[in-house]
Design goal:
Length: 227
């Protein structure tokens, strides 16, 4: 005859019931297991990030303060001269017509000076009737208070009417619309070609006087140039 202990049987039944319940929970909620696994990865990573910020933040703040102090200690007196790339200057002449001066680079002639040394300067002047006069050179010196431009090296003057003048140096008053030069001049236009010892340009090119020994070769098809 077989005797069964009722207490042991009850424990066995309860254990089986617990195992079945746990299995049902796992089958019923698989996302819970994934959530727990994800938290096991994320929580240590977040903790490490917070700890890292706590350690390096004082160094970041201290570095910022060092930069701030170093820049604040620089004054205008410590800067020799100012430079500018792709410089542009704008103004209006005596007739209230716009003009502009551009250059590849502009360097302050001396500390605090109102004159700038220009590389590859170009000046454009508008006339009252909507035409334009353009000047260019290898180098130049532009005075902002007086709006004067000294040009040196491969100086070229182009007018909208179709003539051009080439020389080695010239001085232009952009405010008054005048220019002059005392170096040999070569010029050409619809009327022909000429050479001279110098030139004087007035009223933004409306009148040009060639000085010294001048030689003019007329184009028979063009006739005499207008005065």
């Amino acid at each position: 005859m077989v005797h069964v202990d009722s207490r042991m049987a009850l424990k066995s039944v309860n254990r089986s019931r617990d195992l079945l319940a746990a299995g049902e929970i796992k089958e019923r909620d698989p996302g819970y297991t994934r959530f727990v696994g994800l938290m096991k990865i994320l929580l240590p990573a977040v903790a490490a990030l917070v700890l890292g910020l706590v350690l390096i933040w004082p160094q970041i703040v201290g570095r910022d303060e060092r930069f701030r102090v170093s820049f604040s200690n620089i004054s205008a007196k410590d800067v020799d001269t100012l430079s500018m790339v792709n410089a542009r200057y704008f103004g209006t002449d005596a007739d209230n017509q716009p003009f502009s001066v551009t250059a590849d680079t502009a360097n302050e002639a001396s500390k605090g000076a109102k004159a700038v040394e220009l590389d590859a300067p170009k000046a454009d002047i508008m006339t009252r009737d909507g035409q334009w006069l353009a000047l260019s050179a290898d180098n130049g010196l532009y005075s902002q208070p007086s709006s004067t431009l000294d040009l040196l090296g491969n100086v070229n003057l182009f007018h909208d009417k179709g003539y051009e003048i080439h020389t080695t140096s010239a001085q232009a008053d952009l405010k008054m619309g005048t220019a002059s030069g005392d170096d040999p001049v070569r010029g050409q236009g619809p009327f022909g070609a000429l050479t001279a010892d110098g030139f004087r340009l007035y009223d933004k090119g409306a009148r040009i006087v060639f000085t010294g020994r001048s030689h003019l070769i007329l184009d028979p098809k063009a006739g005499m140039p207008s005065r």
